[in-house]
Amino acid sequence: EKTNMFPLIQRCCFNTPFKLQKFPGASVLLRGRNKASGSSLALLQLQRDARPLCTPLSLQPAAGYTAQLRPFHTSLPVSKKKTPAESEEQSQEGAGSLKDCPKPALYLSLGGLIPFVAVPLAMALQGSYCPELAFAQVTYGAATASFLGGMRWGFALPENSPAKPDWLNLANGTVPALLACQALLFKDVTQGALMLTVALGIALHYDISLLPTYPRWFKVLRVVGTVVMISSLLATVALKALFEGEQSDDRKNQQN
């Protein structure tokens, strides 16, 4: 039985891609092949060494090790390139005060508010109502309201603008100019100032709610400018009523 096992073991071992000289059991077999006194211990050792060689090789263990090593991948994360729309949204969210305004836009806007503030301030310092200054303030307010309405046209006309040059956007840009023209037709400055207040409020509503793509710093600047303009117009109306009331009382006293 021992001699019949040698051809089977040799066929199984020599069909493998490895050399038998690497295993101690194979070397014992080659040396004591022709000897009749083969020990059972050597045969058991040979069978134990030759059995793994007869099994087909597989790459599944390597794939398993690769799957286990995947969670330990330590390469640096690749930064995703931001699109212009995302960068624009982030810039709109981050900039939200007058400090973020560009210097030319801030200084020119503040300089444009000087004629509004100067008229009621001059009347208050003079202590009397001046109809010429009040009419000049209303005229300047009409020009400003027309400019704010025309700014909608300039925003909607470019090809890459998010606002389309449709009936809604262009008509909304025309409404403040029409109201400003109506304000100049009133003989009473009070009625003209109130009409300008409506025109400036409508223009602010358009810029804040209907055009969300404006930068936030521009919206803040528009809110501050509109509040100052409307407050100046209402201050002129209040001073007109106050000084005219005092003048009428003085005339009554003189007549009495």
UniProtKB/TrEMBL annotation:
<feature type="transmembrane region" description="Helical">
    <location>
        <begin position="193"/>
        <end position="214"/>
    </location>
</feature>
<keyword id="KW-0472">Membrane</keyword>
<feature type="region of interest" description="Disordered">
    <location>
        <begin position="76"/>
        <end position="98"/>
    </location>
</feature>
<feature type="transmembrane region" description="Helical">
    <location>
        <begin position="220"/>
        <end position="243"/>
    </location>
</feature>
<protein>
    <submittedName>
        <fullName>TMM69 protein</fullName>
    </submittedName>
</protein>
<feature type="transmembrane region" description="Helical">
    <location>
        <begin position="137"/>
        <end position="155"/>
    </location>
</feature>
<dbReference type="InterPro" id="IPR021836">
    <property type="entry name" value="DUF3429"/>
</dbReference>
<keyword id="KW-1133">Transmembrane helix</keyword>
<feature type="transmembrane region" description="Helical">
    <location>
        <begin position="167"/>
        <end position="186"/>
    </location>
</feature>
<keyword id="KW-0812">Transmembrane</keyword>
<dbReference type="Pfam" id="PF11911">
    <property type="entry name" value="DUF3429"/>
</dbReference>
<feature type="transmembrane region" description="Helical">
    <location>
        <begin position="105"/>
        <end position="125"/>
    </location>
</feature>
